[in-house]
Design brief:
Strand content: 5-15%
CATH class of the largest domain: Mainly Alpha
Bound molecules: adenosine-5'-diphosphate, magnesium ion, zinc ion
Strand order of the largest sheet: 6-8-9-10-7-11
Distance between the termini: 76 Å
Number of strands: 14
């Protein structure tokens, strides 16, 4: 089947550098040992067999004529015994080599009698300059600096060496923890649900990795790179693992953000390593997650790290160009921002295949749920189809989370099975967040009720808005209340009428406050922000304004922080910008007026609904319907 480990795939493998006699990482040890010895030598003044004397003993020896000469150096006195002195002071009488010299310290007080005493006994007096000879002083004062510099050079050199060789066992880029992880994946395609078209496409890739000869006999070569594109949590990483698991090839994975390192060049070295090892393994899969972290258009973005990113990216490109089709390495990369990728990455011969994963639609959600409930004991009342219908907008990861939360809820309530109630609780927790214990005064609570009912009335009556499903004034997370709407179906595109009704629902909360209290509160901040952003895009991107016309402008684009928009000049004039701003304002004002008029017309319903929700705290769609129909 596969190319043997020493097949032609390895011919490009570079020779290992011969090891130097003293491995470079030990040279520093040698160097410091040498310095240490030198310090010892400097401390030792070259005098051996020195007899330590007490100062008083020394004076006695002088008086007794046992000293022949002395050298005075500040408080230190060294000197030599006469023969008789030698005999008297030798510590080891049996030893031939008894002490000939002595050493003593003068008390720090002046002793003017000493010189007289020495002269009296006709002892040769020498004086030594205080301190060390100049060159020793020099070395001593510079030694710490020398050591410091040596250390710096060593670190620097070592880092350089790692970068250039990449083969050193102590190097950062290959340190076990940070290395690209090689694994044998146990994930199979059965674990991936709901993305049938993507699965069909990768079936071919798996087949090729398993039996490359079949394809090569026909002169076909496989794409070198496959790009998995999709929003977070849609199963990109999962799919990559499944490919490796099905094809039974080694799987090298690394997240692109891990490439970004302190030292410029480490990322590139890591890429080189990863490809080198994968090559050794014959058919193998390399998976680079979050490719946009390095593969972003060059020259875009703010802040530092450009060099590092660029070098890493260039290395990936070089490696992908460098390997031959017979090497059977497939590079998979995942990103949720294909729009910011450098065009060099998307050229043929690199990531020329693209597999797009979308948020799952209803049937796909049901299929994904089925995968994740495999190990969960379900109560008979659980209807997966219904759960799938109620989880519009959930990604695969969200659904997995939902099943897990439901199981946790069941455990908390000491159930033996996971019931549909558990799923409801879990869904609420995911959508709304935890119930918060924000404490509202009665007036505030009433105001929140009117605000939410304003949203609810609009959602209930407007024909194009998403149907109202629930209304609550129990604070969840940051929100003081919540009007929940569930789309009738999964949307791919939106009509203008839908968007307008949606904005009116958003403005309903603020307008209800205005209507009831004659003024507004800070509670509508988020509503206004969302409404403004939406109108901006309607006008700027989707041409939904008669005044501005069918212009597609680069305004209101998301992910400004990723750098694309920052680097891009505004492609319309100052005058146009003014017109757009005026149009945004005009549209918002007009929609606010329509909403306010609508609520004024339905004031009675608003008051009734607010009363009901103040009593019940939470109303379902049926409750709301019952109350409003009675009116
Ligand atoms: P991404 O890499 O696209 O952000 P992941 O592959 O990490 O998403 O998905 C996270 C988890 O969500 C997976 O481990 C898997 O359990 C679940 N999941 C996502 N998509 C699917 C799917 N299509 N089928 C089954 N499980 C899925
Ligand atoms: Mg992922
Ligand atoms: Zn609101």
């Amino acid at each position: 089947m596969a190319t043997p480990p020493n097949g032609p795939g390895n011919s490009k493998q570079p020779e290992k550098n011969p090891q130097p006699l003293i491995p470079k990482q030990y040279s520093f040890l040698w160097f410091s040992a040498a310095i240490f010895l030198m310090v010892l030598w400097l401390q030792d003044d070259g005098q051996t067999r020195l007899q330590e004397l007490a100062y008083s003993d020394f004076k006695t020896a002088v008086v007794n004529g046992q000293v022949s000469q002395v050298t005075l150096k500040e408080e230190e006195i060294t000197g030599q015994f006469t023969d008789s002195g030698n005999a008297a002071f030798s510590s080891d009488s049996t030893s031939q080599k008894s002490a000939e010299s002595f050493h003593t310290i003068r008390p720090p007080m002046e002793d003017p009698s000493l010189l007289n005493l020495l002269e009296e006994h006709q002892i040769t007096i020498r004086a030594a300059p205080s301190g060390l000879p100049w060159w020793q002083e020099l070395i001593r004062s510079f030694l710490p600096w020398l050591l410091f510099l040596a250390l710096m050079f060593w670190f620097w050199g070592a880092a350089q060496q790692r970068l250039t060789q990449g083969g050193n066992p102590l190097s950062f880029s290959r340190s076990k923890a940070r290395r690209a992880r090689k694994e044998t994946s146990t994930t199979t395609l059965d674990d991936v649900a709901g993305i049938e078209s993507a699965k069909r496409e990768i079936a071919e890739i798996i087949d090729f990795l398993k039996a490359p000869e079949k394809y090569r006999a026909l002169g076909a070569s496989m794409p070198k790179g496959v790009l998995l594109v999709g929003p977070p949590g849609t199963g990109k990483t999962l799919l990559a693992r499944a490919i490796a698991g099905e094809a039974e090839v080694p799987f090298y994975s690394i997240s692109a953000s891990e490439f970004i390192e302190m030292f410029v060049g480490v990322g590139a070295a890591r890429v080189r390593d990863m490809f080198q090892e994968a090559r050794k393994d014959g058919p193998a899969l390399i998976f680079i997650d979050e490719l946009d972290a390095i593969g972003r258009s060059r020259g875009a973005g703010l802040g530092g790290g450009h060099d590092e990113r660029e070098q890493t990216l260039n290395q990936i490109l070089t490696e992908m160009d460098g390997f031959e089709s017979h090497e059977n390495i497939l590079v998979l990369a995942a990103t949720n921002r294909p729009d910011v990728l450098d065009s060099a990455l998307l050229r043929p011969g690199r990531f020329d295949r693209k597999i797009t994963l979308d948020r799952p639609h209803k049937d796909a959600r049901a299929a994904i749920l089925k995968v994740h409930i495999r190990k969960v004991p379900l109560a008979p009342d659980v209807d997966l189809e219904q759960i799938a219908a109620l989880t519009i907008g959930f990604s695969g990861a969200d659904l997995k989370n939902l099943v897990n939360e439901a199981a946790l809820t069941a455990a908390r309530e000491n159930l033996h099975e996971v019931t549909s109630h558990c799923f409801e609780v879990a869904r609420d927790r995911i959508i709304l967040g935890e119930v918060s214990d924000a404490h509202l005064s009665p007036e505030e609570r009433t105001a929140v009720a009117y605000h939410e009912c304003g949203h609810a009335i609009m959602a209930y009556y407007l024909p194009n808005a998403d149907p109202l499903t629930r209304l609550t004034i129990i604070p969840h997370g940051m929100a003081m209340g919540m009007t929940e709407q569930t789309p009738r179906e999964d949307h791919v595109t939106y009509k203008e009428s839908y968007l307008r009704d949606r904005i009116k629902v958003m403005l309903g909360g603020r307008c209800a406050e205005k209507l009831i209290y004659g003024e507004v509160s800070t509670g509508a901040q988020n509503d206004l922000k969302e409404a403004t952003a939406l109108v901006r895009r309607m006008i700027g991107q989707w041409g939904m304004s008669e005044k501005i016309g069918p212009l597609g402008l680069n305004i209101g684009e998301e992910h400004v922080f990723l750098g694309r928009e920052m680097g891009m000049p505004r492609e319309f004039s100052e005058k146009m910008a003014e017109m757009i701003d005026a149009e945004i304002q005009a549209q918002l004002l007009s929609m606010e007026k329509q909403t306010l008029d609508f609520l004024t017309e339905h004031r009675d319903q608003l008051e009734t609904l607010a009363k009901a929700v103040l009593e019940e705290e939470t109303l379902s769609a049926e409750d709301v319907k019952g109350i409003l129909l009675k009116e």
